[in-house]
Structures are given as structure tokens and as C-alpha cells.
Amino acid sequence: SDVVLYVSTTEPESLEELKTFEQLEGTSYTATKNGTYYFFAVDEEGRVGSTLYEVTGFDETAPVIGAVEASTTELTNEKVTVTVTATDDTAVDRVVYSADPAANPAELTDTATIAEDKYVFEIDAAAGETNANTYYIWAIDAAGNVSNPATVQINIDKQAPAFTVTAATDTEPFTSGSWTGAEKVTITATCDEAEATLVFAAENDVEKAQPYTAAIEVTDEGATTYFFWSKDALGNVSDPTEFIVKIDREKATISAMQAAVADWATPVIKVTGDATDDGAGVGKVLYNSTEDFATAKEATYADGKFEFSVSMEEAIAAGLTYYVWAVDTVGVVSET
After folding, report:
1. Distance between CA 213 and CA 190 in Å, rounded?
2. How far apart are CA 241 and CA 164, in angstroms?
3. Are 277 and 328 in contact (CB under 8 A)?
4. Which helix (H) or strand (E) holds 265?
5. How far apart are CA 90 and CA 107, in angstroms?
6. Model confidence at 298, in pLDDT bands (50, 70, 90)?
7. CA atoms of 148 and 61, how far apart (whole Å)
8. pLDDT tens across 170-208, in order?
9. Taking CA 53 as the corner, what is the angle to CA 49 and CA 58, rounded to the nearest 5 degrees?
10. What strand order describes the sheet that includes 22-23?
């Protein structure tokens, strides 16, 4: 008669329960772990034959992590070396680690290297970043058994203190790289971190920098450049912050003025000339038939040259005399 084969790791209390067990397809069975396996044969009349088999060949003992030592557990700006001791009944296949406690150890690719029967790995932080994390460590053997996790605390800081550099004249804020006609510009550097040190230099070389202890007053005409850095107790140094002060108190120059009748039919007189400023640059050119600067009109100005036109009637009424001023971009007015 037909016989049905069943397998289970427990004995049934009834034939009905037995028939709920895993039914074999064929006459072989592949065990995947240690234990007692019961095999049953049931014929059409419900008669049962049974046997058992004890499987003991699988490695089901997880590795054990012993000592975990870090090169430092203090705050540092250097990479940290972690050394792990791990043992197993057979052999440890690998040691893995992650800052994610919920990580699946079998899927981790960050593995320690073997050095003198110990497992070693390094933890670091990217430049300008911090890495303050608890790292979880697992040992895995060749059979895939995973140890209980061990932990190590990492506290790396490669972030230099944040700071700001501002400036002002006696009357208004000043922006780096802009021009001013003020007598002086005062530069101030500030940092909220109490243990930070600020340094500065006239060139982009932190090795030549000196401590910043008080506001810097700039009075020289032309462009003056300073570079600022922050440092902390760990030795982190910020990128440089460049600050440029441009002072121009010199007056613009007007030259090569000419007047000619541009249109005899109207008639119209065109006045042309050059206006230059070696510092902040010419912002505009004004003209008037009187010496009253406040009511002067603006001439056309571009690329160092200006022009304006007046009618012959207006010019004669003005006595054929016009006054011209060049005003630079910081408001300094030329001689008439």
C-alpha cells in the first residue's frame, strides 16, 4: 500500500497531529541544525512506523568578543584605532562593526584586519566634521554564528571653531572688498567658542599669523588685506577668511576738456573730456553754468570719458563758462 513519510523534531500525541508534520518528498531529508529528528511512515490503514536520528555535526556556538580597546576614548582630532579580541570553538571568520545598532552583521562590509591574533580597525572623521558615536562590534564564524555585540565610544572632532569678521567706518558698516573714503576702517573678529584662538596675518600663511587680541584699525589708502583663522585646543585650524579694506581719499582728475559746436542748425555745443580716478573709480561727472555743485546736472560718463551738450543760447547766457566736477564711487569730489 502507499506509505507517507513525515519528519519532525518533536513526537506527536496523536495520528492527527502527526499528519500535520512536514511531509517528505521522496525518501531523504536535509537537516539544517543540530537536534533529534523523528521520522514516521504512515500507511493507508493508519499504521505508523517510526525512527529517530540525532544530528550533532553543525556548529551552533557563537563566537565570543573579549577585550575591546581604543587608542583613546577622549576627545581627539586624530583617527582612533580599535583592537578587538574574539574567540570561537572553531574559528572566527571575521569581525565587523557599525555605528548602527540595528545593522545586520551578516551584511556589513566594514571588517577588521587581523594583527597578532587580534582584530584591528580604525575610525576617523572627514576634515571639518565630527564623529561622536557608539560603534557596535560583532564576531562571525564560518558557520554564520554571530556573537553578542560589544561597543566602543568614539569622539572625534575635526571641526575648527566658527568665527566671523566684520568691519565698520566711524559712521557705517563696511563690506570686505568695497571702497570707502573714510579716514579709517576698524576690523573686528569674534568667536563664540570660549577656548578658541583667533590669529591673523597680512598674507595667506597661518604659520606667519599672530594672535588676534584687539580690533584692527586700517588707515592706509589703497587696498589692505588680512587673513584670519580660528584654532581650538585639539589643534583644528579653520580655512582662512580673507578681508580686504580699500580706502580712497584722493580726488578724481578731470582733463582734456574740449568744447565744439556739434550742430550749427540748432545750434548745440558739445563739451567732452576725461575723468579718471586711480582708486575707487569715477562714479559720475556733474556740470553747471554756476559754481553751485548742489544744482549741477549729470553728464554722460563711460570708460573714462564724459560729455554733455548745451544750447548756444544757454552757453551765451552762462558767459560761455561751465564748471565740471568728477565724483568717485565713494563720494570724493574733484577740483572744479
Report:
1. 10
2. 9
3. yes
4. none
5. 22
6. very high
7. 12
8. 999 999 999 999 999 999 999 988 889 999 999 999 999
9. 155
10. 22-23, 3-8, 35-43, 48-55
